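Title: Prediction job returns without error message
Component: structure pipeline
Severity: low
Priority: P3
Assignee: unassigned

Description:
Job completed but the reporter wants confirmation the result is attached to the right record. Sequence as submitted:
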Amino acid sequence: MTSARHFWRAQLEGYKMERGLALPFDRHRLSDSERSGRALIVDFELSEHLTQSFLDYASSHNVTSFQLGLAAFFTFLFKLSNGQQDLCIASVNANRYRSELRDMIGMFVATLPYRIQLDPHATFEQLVQQVRDLCLSIIEHSHYPLQHIIGNHHSPAFLEIMFDFITVESDVERVDLGDALLEPVSLQNPIDVA
């Protein structure tokens, strides 16, 4: 735990936990006591051609789809925030940092901060490698609990923006799990499920 504690302290050193990203808003930001608790989720699909280009780029640069997507998201936030270079967001981690946990059934998910300090003169390829290195070091220290990472900060700003990369096969008719077979069911005509 000591090396993880040192890692997270170094990772967030100098970051102002209360300061959110300078994103454009269409209305005044509410104080914590006035917030509704509502959130916005944006998901989108990539065309087949763009998906193939995305996967080819990830493969040729030795990064995962998550890492490439995160680099693109950091680039988007950099542009959206008018060049804010110190970016920190949250992301969900599978938290299976030891080999004996990889095949175990259960929920090990952890929410962790992903902080990056962008060089506005760096290439996208350099950013991708920086994100790759960041992700690998976070995986190594993902077992450290979020409540210890944030310490006395009750609502750190990085928890306001979360990134998740989910790959979904759109044309899957059925999923075979050995003893179970999952198939889509139309909800147009309600059926009794017992």
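Comment from assignee: result matches the submitted record. The two ends are 47 Å apart (CA to CA).
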